[in-house]
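Please check our next protein.
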Amino acid sequence: MGSTLLEIRDLRTHFVTDQGEIPAVDGMDLLIHKGEIVGVVGESGCGKSVTSLSVMRLIPQPPGKYAGGSILFKGEDLVQAKEKRMKQIRGDEISMIFQEPMTSLNPLLTIGDQIVETLRVHRSMSRKEAYSQALEMLKKVGIARAETILRGYPHQLSGGMRQRVMIAIALCCEPELLIADEPTTALDVTIQAQILDLMKKLNEETGTAIMMITHDLGVVAEVCHRVVVMYAGKVVEEGTVREIFEKPRHPYTQGLIRSIPKIEEDVKRLYSIPDNVPKPGTVKEGCRFAARCEHVMDKCLRHLPELVSTTSPGHRSRCWLNAIEEVAN
């Protein structure tokens, strides 16, 4: 495991609305080492994307605000960084792939112009040099007819091709951290597999650390080294992929894994966790998952458990059941 690249400590990202201040991320802790692929999973509304946008400092202020905590990138607190410094970091040291490439690419510029622009902003090179490097980058992400694609526009490409272009733009300056927010959403299964294989290959070849935001546990099992499970703005469990899939400790993680269809099982109705993620700020005390948990106790309704280590090194869970299991053992 490499040295620490990104460390999020007690991050609190709130949004000011007519109904008051809403905590979208409420005490987030996350650690990513150099060269590591970490999956951040959870249902829609749990705070995954807000966390990633917070790291990039792309939360609009107002209505958003950083209410507390720190985001340490190579020891530098990005929450306190000036906008000029963030412009240097974005696209160079940290890059991001967004959910929908069609809305992320400029429809009025050719693919080549968009890659060249990124290179020239962060690297001292002529347009000719940047164009040559853009061509090599498209080839690196597996795009055939790279010369033709460079002269084309986003609307002329398929979804999978646009996602490859987004990866090429994100990696052209060789960032140390790549944030991928649902990179395979809206792609068919075959293209999803190709994109995931590409990201694994680039991670192995370049050593770029990846923060993979997803709700798809299949994606996590395919590419990630560690998993962080979020629920209602907080981390509820974290550990290696093997630990999370083979011995999940938090009832929410257990529910997510039970929800995965198994080809060898013949069931009439697939399992699903009852009810929905609570709206941010509506749970004032106790465990955020208590209303949906089949193991709920009186203590769960009154006190929020801490994220504590389990019997496995590096495996942590936020559940009162852990304390009961330790006493039993």
